[in-house]
# Entry
Amino acid sequence: MARHENTTPAIEDALNASQVLFTANPLFLPPQSKHLFQAQERFWDEIETFSTAWFRRRQAATHAIIDAGRRIASEGGRDPALMIKEVTELQSGAMERLTADARECTEMLTHCADALARNEITAIQETAEKTQRATKTAKSDPV
# Structure
């Protein structure tokens, strides 16, 4: 933007920022917004899948702790080896659940990034096609 003698940097920054609002062509917005919403839907699906599995693993952990506690309370006082075995199995199950958490979280983030990238690429392609069509009609002979 050209500098004028009577404008301040703050005014100039505000004018530059507002230009974005006025230069956005509505012809090109639908592909981006459509694909953004598609990506968001995919994100929600991925988050729901991950969250459901995560809560099921937490529920399984709770049941494992309760069952181990019952076995230890009923027989562990008389048999220290049983108590150690129960705690070891409980810790092993916890590590398996944490490993599944990490693996599935990585998968969720990968799927979300994939959805975002694919939708962005498709939106850019659609925008380019619309731009080409708009430029072809703009080059037509005046009436």
Notes: The first helix runs from residue 9 to 23.
